[in-house]
What we know:
Structural class: mainly beta
Amino acid sequence: MSCNNELLNAFKTCGNQVPGVESAWVTNRKNIATAPHADGSNLVTDMTMVTGKYIYPLELNTETIKPKSELVISTTGSNRYKHGAELSVITPTGADILNIMGDDLVLIVKLKNKADIAGGGTFQIYGLECGLRSENGIVIDPLAASVMLKYASRGNETEFYPVWNLWKTSDALTLTMLDLFLVP
């Protein structure tokens, strides 16, 4: 992907690591019942889960998460974006592996040191429209007691926005909402 300065100013996630990720969660896209957003906006103002389905926290190994958004230029319609992420997580248990692997996942990240402003930006969603797939299986790093995961857009599927922002009137309420969806 090629990102010129104009694009970098408009979309700070363009091909770059998102700095200062504090927390991350993953779920299967079909587990999300609703994620309403206004037409023409990347702001998701609420989210509900299918009954009995959950989001799974990822125990990050330091700040080794790199969500990304890659511009796909169209000659026939609107430009779109491929979402992806690379992350290192503390070695998961067998049950956790089933929840973080798959071919239709949604990744939610909470950024550090973001202002709690209308419209959000602290919580970002990757793969909301088309899902992400596990790209490399599991690569275990026994020295770091961690697992490297790579997620990418599924095939040629693309998202309408470079990133989706999740914001339920405040960052505190957004985090409370996510906490309600955690696996018991």
